[in-house]
Fold Protein RER1.
Amino acid sequence: MSSSEPGTGVASVSTTFSNAKRQYQQWLDRVTPFVLYRWLGTAGLLSLFMLRIMIAQGWYIDALAIYLLNLLLAFLQPRFDPSLQEDLLADEIEGGGEDTTATLPSQRDDEFRPFVRRLPEWQFWLSSTRAMILAILCTFSEVTDVPVYWPILVVYFLVLFALTMRRQIQHMIKYKYIPFDFGRKVRYGSH
């Protein structure tokens, strides 16, 4: 098959894309176990982004900050929200017509339930890092530099952060869960 035939260019692009995708996945597989170094790299990207904003004198920060706040909230929330489960159970009881005495209890207070995040740490890191790389690339384009009155955006972000974190902390206290284990292993009994 010569290079002038129609399918050659598409096959070459497809092969190149496939190889790049495979190399990207190999790199992700290699960095997976190094949690601290991954987050330090992401913090470095955030520092680079801030430096780029100061050098470019741009207004790029608010969208990234709100996206990262959204990721943080998903990281702190449980996959199966107890308040939602209580609402569903209350709806079933109020549904009427059904005999609810024969159903098994949906939860027990003494049952061990590990904390399962709505957004796992790996996805949180990967999404944050991708967003920061995209944000850095956006600082090189005049199209994404929308002039705004920055104090309003900063106040908006701080109020949004305070309100959402207050609500999240109240939820954590009400349903008695802590999204971090701090490396401690819980031991029962005297072993």
Notes: Residues 21-91+114-175 form one domain. Confidence is low (pLDDT under 50) at residues 97-105.
